Structures are given as structure tokens and as C-alpha cells.
Amino acid sequence: MKTNVFLALMMTMSLSAQQTLQLEKNQESPKASLSEVSLLAGHWKGEAFGGMTEEIWSPPQGNSMMFVFRLMNDGEVTFYEIGHILQQNETLILQLKHFNGDLKGWEEKDETVDFKLVKIEDNKVYFEGMTIEKMDKDHVNFHVLVSESGKEREVIFRYERVKT
């Protein structure tokens, strides 16, 4: 009985851990346009890392869609992100920077965390280490590969559109 439970747990973990992809060596990002990710435009709220998460995305304009993110724990900002999906050389790249709650940056001044486009399917956009999954028009999941203590794991951010 314990073996069956263990196997079922391992299968579930492996299924959920297969959401993010990487480009193969020498593989280039496919052609894509911002219209293929425009569903993100809007205000989103969810939960992750034991707190409340929030993202606000602009509509595509000027070859980019900008966004801001914040994580709140116990009524305090844990960290922010600011970034964009940029249309560049006929493909897309997601770039971001992290900031503490006091706006002190994590990355060096001229550095960004970059996620190159891997592929786009009907309801999923795969960037290296991050997959955006459209559940329906008001729900999206972000599957993000994070490194903690030298180990990588996927974190799921489940968002619901904020209706104004």
C-alpha cells in the first residue's frame, strides 16, 4: 500500500514539475508577436510563497507589455518585480528586475533576469524557466522555476483577474 501511495505521489510531482522548458543548445526562439500574450493585460491577484501576490500588466504598446508584481506577507511588501515582455527580432523575451520592499534592487544596475521564448501553444506560452498557462479569460497560472539553496523547483502562481 505504501508503495502505491509513493508511486502516485511521485507521478503527481513529476507531472506538475514538467511545466517549464529550456531551449536546446543552439536553438533560437520562434517567431512570435505581443498579440499572442495580450491576454495578460489587466490586474491579477493570487497567492504564493505564503502570501498575497499581485500583477498588473499593460496592453501591448511600443513593442512591449510592461508589468509590476508584488508579494505581501503579513501586510508587508516582501518584494517587487518590474519588467516587460519585449518584442525583439521577431520574437519575444520576458525581462525583469527584483526589488526588496524598500526598493533596493537585487540585480546589478545594468542586469536583468531574462526568459527567452521557447514556444507558444494554444493555452501556454513557454519561456525558459517560466510558463504562462491560460486557464480561462479570468484565470492564469505562472509556473516559475526558482533556485533555493542550490536546488531548483517549480512554484505555481495561480491568478484571478481583478474585475473593476
User: How large is the share of residues in beta strands?
Assistant: over 45%
The residue fraction in helices comes out at: under 10%
Number of helices: 1
| Element string (H = helix, E = strand) | HEEEEEEEEEE
Widest sheet: strand order? 1-2-3-4-5-6-7-8-9-10
The major beta sheet can be summarized as: 10 strands, antiparallel, barrel
The span between the termini is: 50 Å
What's the rounded overall pLDDT mean? 88
Q: Which regions are unreliable across 5 or more consecutive residues at pLDDT < 50?
A: 1-17
Q: Radius of gyration over alpha carbons?
A: 17 Å
Q: Return the structural class.
A: mainly beta
Tell the overall outline.
Answer: globular
Number of domains: 1
Number of strands: 10
Describe this structure in words.
The protein has 164 residues and is mainly beta. It has one domain. Helices cover 9% and strands 53% of the residues. It has 1 helix and 10 strands; from the N terminus they run H-E-E-E-E-E-E-E-E-E-E.
